[in-house]
Amino acid sequence: MMDRLFKKWHIRHLYFWSMTIFVVLLFAVVIWTSYYFSVQGIIRTTSSHQERILAQLNEKLRARFSLIESVSLSAVRNNQLMNLLSEPKESYENLVAVQNVVASLQTLTFSTPSILNIDVYVREAPRSGINDPVRFLELAAIEKEDWYSQIGQSDFAWIGEHRTIAYTGETSVVSFARKFYSSGGDYGGIVMINMKASEVQQLLLEENVEPSRQLFDSGGRLITRVGRDFPLSDIPELDTGERLVDFPPAANGYRLVPGQALVVWTQIKGSGWLLAETTPWKGLVAGSARMAKFLLAIGLTAVAALVLFFFLLNRKFTQPIYLLLRAMNHFPAEKGRSMLPEDYRNEFGQLFHGYRKLLYRIEELYETLRLQYRKQKEAEIGALQAMINPHFLYNTLDQLNWMAIKDGNDRMSHVLELTGKMLRIGLSNGESLIPLSAELELSECYIKIQQIRLGDRIRYEIDVPEETRSCLVPKMTLQPFIENSIRHGFHGRKTGEIAIRCQKEERGLRLIIEDDGKGLPEEAARLSARTRGGYGLRNVRERLSAFFGSGAALEIRGRDEGGTLVALFIPELRDVESGGGERIP
Amino acid sequence: MTKARWLGLGATALSLVLVITACGANSNDSKGSANSPSHSKAGSAVQLGITWAGSQVRHDATLAALDLYSKSNPDVTFEPTYMGFDTYFTKLATLSASRNLPDIMQIDTGNLMDYALRNQLADLSGGIDTSNMNEKLLSAGKVNGKLYGIPLGVNTITFMYNKAAFDKLGIQVPEKGFNWDEWVKIAKETKPKLEKGKYFMMDLSMATGTTESDKYEIYQLAYGKGFIHTPDGKFNIDRDTYIQFNKLFADLRNEGIVPPANVTAGHKQNDPQLDLFMNGTILVQREYAAAFPNFESVHPGQFAMTLVPSASNAGGFMLPSQFFTVSQNSKYPDEARKFIEWFVNDKEAGRALTLARGVPVSKPVLDDLSQTLDATAQMQIDIIDRVATDANSFSSRPKGYGAWTDEWTKISQAVAFDKMAPEKAYDELKKKWDEIIKL
Predict the structure, then answer these.
(1) What is the ipTM of this complex?
(2) Cα separations (Å) of B171 from B164, B165, B166?
(3) Residue B87 to residue A132, Cβ atoms within 8 A
(4) Shortest CA distance from A53: residue in chain B
């Protein structure tokens, strides 16, 4: 897939977008990571810090609540209160008893600043002002209060924030209610100590911070809170059913409600109460969010700068490639080469240079081809002309033959006939390799013509095995040697004999041409003779070399018994096509 | 550009990115840890604890004045605690015992000496402008020549009566008021006209709160026997007069002119339901003029004031309604002084308070106020003017007086319930005086 993209897309886009995406991803990862870890760090610090604070608060609250509890205990164990419950009294005694209870409870109230007032619920309650710090209230009235169920079952209970009317007006209070019994053990009523909720809240508060803290009793009922109300039932550790009845075995802990708040809680030692602090998510991550924004701003700037940078870099890098491409598109035209800039010295420079050189070579090659083509055309024309000439010559020879026959010149007629034959084999449809048999026939024709010219003074002998006759040899290979033997070897001699032999060897044919003529002249004389009549011989040598390279061999030597021996080795060529590939007309 | 330079550029860019991210992470860490100690100094805010007693009208007026002060002095805030009179001094005594008194306290003539001599009050001589105050009034705030209490208002003891009921009953109270005989006569005449459960007047012989010995004191004053203590603090209850007074009220109680003792015991001052005068159980009570606005606020136009009964003598006296004192242990004594100075001398403060703390002590404040006062306020000023003509000269209560009046309350109740003979009660009171008030 990736590979295909790299093969399909424009290099400029590919390069630009891959770099841009990479950088954007890099920044995103960096920003997200720092945000994530900073939030994690803050949560860790915050929660441990809060746990510490809550533990301290625990101590304070415990002290405060146990103070109230002990005040309450001393209130219900108060002799005056016990006295109030004993036998019905006449009104003055009752007044004094009530006043004594009031006096002692008042002292408790006033000496404990956190106590707002004390309500004493009894049957047939003495009249007391709503503004009094110690009030007597009818016991029956308490059963209507919605918190009554909490004290109904037990001897004492903390009652969460509720409202009561006091001398300071209607106030929110947290109360501790305790049942009291007469000395005889009869249920007398309830003494309820009201603490100003604000006092408890003050405890929950810290200097200069605005925390959200909630205090629950062991039944999971809210006693009081400061700050935001956060439903803790969202916390699985704290929610065991409908209410927060059971507490987690761990006395403290924290949980993150993502996007909402961090909740840290501790249990108040010995009471099963729970103190929970919630920190709103926004406040918690404000710092990190600010940092992330800051990083994002930097990131965007950097990405913008980098993208610009990539864009320019990309242009610089790909420009040469596009220049090269454009130059290639303009290829045949001469200006293609001049479109390539000259000032690159790096790899691009080498590439341009290479391409320029390539162009130059190609142009050179074109030129050569053009030349060759012209030559070929000329040769073709020449060959066509040459094909016409032999026929003309052949026809003329035939007419001459008929003229000789008509004149009764049989010898001439025979010569002409042989010449015609030679000419036909010599032409042999333009083939340069012919079967040995045809070459022998051509040689025989030549010798016969010489016999007619010179009479029976020349004899010849051809000893060729039948199987070699089909072997291919370059045409006119033998004739030049025979001509040499007759013209030079037998010059000035009465008779001469030429023998042509052939031997099949492993990889070719060995042809021997022997004569019993004068043999090879002296070294100096031979050189001059070469210059004079050497054309045929040189021609053979060159052609052999052209056909077979070093595969062919030509040896000329004088015989011991007189005369000359020419030994030719021609590598075997059975197939005309492979041997005579190049048809030179 | 060479390859090396490109590499260099890339490295720089990369390190820049790393540095930026590293910085980001660092700044975060430091923020997390630097969270707690931030903004620990909250400026030089002064919080003054202030406590007073009184009715709702006084609470509201005083709170309004505090707000006003905080507005013009943003550095100063108040922590007010306020309550009714009945338990106020009990609470103050408890706070005093725990050395936990607020900066500014309302104290009255009955307690000033107590707190001053126990060295719990700051000397306010100098530092507060008292030039506009009546010298006589000011001297009530002095103990042993030192000024401990700044009087907040002029007050006088009065008979307060249910004017609406009186009008229906055809009783006209004269300018100078009735004397004791006239009151008793009218009471006896009126009694049959009242429905069951209604009584003519308060049982002055039975105290229901603190410092209520003045209920008897006006009787002794009227009969020319002076205050219940001498100006130098000696016990001065006249045995015969005391017995005569208790006999009189025992008779009135028996005749149903004053309520039975157990009804009186249920009296709760200023409680709309339980205040016998406010709820119409009784038609006449002894009350201080400064408390009038509270009754007026509950039943507007229903009540009026007259002089306390006279006999051979006038029974009335004038006194500072309350003092503001400054705790010896106050952390901000100067701020407290500054506030009191403003509280008594500033016209704005005067307008906020009107007469809720008695008639203003500062002449310019009173003058400023009198232009805007309504009829009830005018009545308050008026009664003070009327009492002033032949008022007994008031002197501050001796040290321990407050505690002794608690004993008075108990003893008076015992007498009212017929558990103690007045003669025995007299001896008890004298004994307690000697025990408590050591000179």
Answers:
(1) 0.72
(2) 10, 9, 5
(3) yes
(4) B36
The reply to whether B166 and B293 lie within a common domain is yes
Q: Which of residues 453-482 of A touch B (CB under 8 A)?
A: none
How far is A534 from A538, CA to CA, in rounded Å? 6
Residue A139 distance to chain B (closest CA, Å)? 19
Residue that terminates a domain, selected from A297, A324, A347: A297
Please indicate if any CB of chain B lies within 8 Å of the CB of A116.
no
Give the distance between the most distant pair of CA atoms in chain B. 126
pLDDT of chain A along its 585 residues, tens only? 677 877 888 888 888 888 888 888 988 898 888 888 888 888 888 888 888 888 888 888 888 888 888 888 888 887 777 777 776 777 888 888 888 888 888 888 888 878 888 888 888 888 787 778 888 888 888 888 877 887 877 888 888 888 888 777 788 888 899 888 877 778 888 899 998 888 888 888 876 677 788 888 777 778 888 877 777 666 655 554 334 444 454 567 777 777 777 888 887 766 777 788 888 888 778 888 888 888 889 888 988 898 898 889 888 888 888 888 888 887 766 666 677 788 888 888 888 888 888 888 888 898 999 999 998 888 888 777 766 677 778 888 888 888 888 988 888 888 888 888 888 888 777 677 888 888 899 888 988 888 888 877 888 888 888 888 888 888 888 888 888 888 888 877 888 889 999 988 888 888 999 888 887 776 544 554 444 446 777 888 888 888 887 888 888 888 888 888 888 898 887 554 444 444 333
Task: Residue A243: give its domain's CATH number.
Answer: 3.30.450.20
Contact yes or no for B268 and A132 at CB 8 A: yes
Q: Say yes or no for a CB contact (<8 Å) between A111 and B261.
A: no
- Residue ranges making up the domain that contains B233: 155-319+396-436
Q: Is the domain of B178 the same as that of B86?
A: no
B1, B17, B30: best to mutate for the A interface, most A CBs within 10 A: B17
Q: Do B271 and A167 touch (CB under 8 A)?
A: no
> What domain count does chain A have?
2
DSSP per-residue codes, A458-470: EEEEEE--GGGTT
8-state DSSP, B170 = T
Beta strands in B186-342 (DSSP E): 199-201, 282-288, 303-306, 318-320, 323-326
Q: Is residue A43 part of a domain?
A: yes
Element containing residue A310 per DSSP (H, E): helix A281-329
Host domain of residue A554: 460-579
Burial class (CB in 10 A: 0-12, 13-18, 19+), A194: buried
Q: Does residue A504 lie within any of the structural domains?
A: yes
- Residues of chain A positioned with their CB less than 8 A from the CB of B408: none
Give the chain B residue whose CA is nearest to the CA of A344: B1
- Considering CB atoms only, which of A34, A106, A302 is closest to B87? A106
Q: Do B163 and B51 belong to one domain?
A: no
Residue at B106 is within a domain:
yes
Q: Please calculate the CA angle B310-B315-B321 and round it to the nearest 5 degrees.
A: 145
The reply to whether A49 touches chain B by the CB within 8 Å rule is yes
**Which chain A residues touch B25 with a CB distance below 8 Å?**
34, 37-38
B41 is a domain residue: no
Q: Check if the beta carbon of residue B352 is closer than 8 Å to that of residue B375.
A: no
Asked if the C-beta of A40 comes within 8 angstroms of chain B's C-beta atoms, the answer is no
Q: How many CB pairs under 8 A join A and B?
A: 116
Burial class (CB in 10 A: 0-12, 13-18, 19+), A19: middle
Contact check, Cβ <8 Å, B100/A113: yes
Rg of chain A (C-alpha set):
66
A92 touches chain B (CB under 8 A): yes
* Total number of domains constituting chain B: 2
Q: Are residues B381 and B408 in the same domain?
A: no
Residue A104 contacts B where some CB pair is shorter than 8 Å: no
